[in-house]
Predict the structure.
Amino acid sequence: MTNEEIKAYISSHIPEASFDETGEWLTIIIEPNSLKDIAAVLRGQPMQMDYLFNLTCVDWKTHLTMVYHFSSTTHRHNIVLKANVDRTAPSIETLCTIWRTAEMLEREVFEMFGMQFLNHPDLRNLILEDETTAGADGKSGYWPLRKDFEDPINMIKL
Amino acid sequence: MYNQTEIIKDTTDLGPEGELVVNMGPQHPATHGVLHLVVTLNGETIKKIEPHLGYIHRSIEKMCESLTYRQFIYVTSRMDYLSSHINNTACALIVEKGMQIEVPERAQFIRTILNELTRIASHELWIGAMAMDLGAFTPFFYAFREREMITDIMEETCGARLTMNYIVPGGLMYDIHPEFQTKVKAFIKQFKEKVTEYEDLVTGNVIFQSRTKGVGVLTAEDAISYGCSGPVARASGVRCDIRKIAPYDAYDKVEFDEVIETAGDSFARYMVRVKEMNQSIRIIEQLIDIIPEGDFVGKTKNVLKLAKGEFYQRVETARGELGVYIVSEGGTTPYRIKFRSPGFSNLSVLNHIAKGSKIGDLMATMGTLDLVIPDIDR
């Protein structure tokens, strides 16, 4: 599918989605509450985005942006999906029921950014020690990959 | 007397009382690094595997946020230390993409040759170590005999045997050693003679086959859903070779086959890697005699600044797809950098494919996933 076809198809299902074509791949920007809907659209026919090859988060100091990179193993087209999430109490729906790889990637984002993934089966720390974040309430504030993170002992600044 | 299946039948629904939790690692000879697996057993049958990561977590992503585009490449050699050339290539390519630097053809050819040599070296180490996990000690020495030749070539070319840091944005750090081509050709000659030896030792071995065939079966759908890549996915019949999908460097100028197996078990993963080594040799043979003359590094500015925006580069390492994602604000350092490491996704499938099998088979399953722990923890 070409970018124009993808845009027309997505717009017909998710009208509020906006697009950005400045990057290498087509970027779809959505509201976090429509993530579940667009995930079903992307995974189903005719898009068949069955391969989630990257899932990460970017801290923009005012908000967090979830970034998903999808690819299709049948059609070989790639797209980027983005959702801006509120920074004070970030939460977004999990994708691990559709793409199983999301389960561990989301756990990493959870401990590094404090993002709460709703309906995630096993949201615990993966890499960091359990007691360092204790971010179950989403408020404790020890999230290493956020921009305002300070660690006077272990962090080396150049 | 009970036979074995009856004993297992008796204990399947014992519930939590009949369960035994075994900690495999963080210091375990078969995990090849500090991987901690919490294995829940019922008798000898695995009920659940839970990986605990982070013993070698250095927060490379955070570190890179304060390093310039020339500096951050050196950190990436320490991620997947068995394919450091390929990690360096990924970082060099993304900087070149962001700054539109033209890379001389000579550098592209040399990079491709070095990447393939790295792949062979990594697979050689894997064959030796994996056979040792399964109790065969001899293949280790056979595999390391050839691997030693590659590390010697690397040492002469880059000055290092493991963490090369030879590939930089724009091309190479310095030109190749004058003896490089002769040495590589000597290696190819020896490899072709000797590769049959450890195929005879391992591939046809009845014990090896019975321990790996039908063990840890991964279907193509699950491989895609779990984000598997590299030999693990290709052994399940998924076409996912980045060298074919999105060629970089000189991969569009060479002919090679993407190795595909369909069985999806541990033996298929073994076969993919063995055949891949032969394909790597094929690529090197095509390029080694036609390395063009000219510059080994393109013209770059002293201070590298990526344009504002987002960049993503995919490369095929020995373990699968490595992705580098950079968000740039136009400065000299990345605003956010993310490494999508192949081992991370390949590890996530372990619980799924090892569940229900015997604990003895876990060695074969985990061994053929080819996990490198610093790559998973980053």
Notes: The interface with chain B takes residues 22-25, 50-54, 56, 58-59, 67, 69, 73, 76, 80, 99-101, 103-105, 126-129, 144-145, 149, 155-158 of chain A (CB under 8 Å).
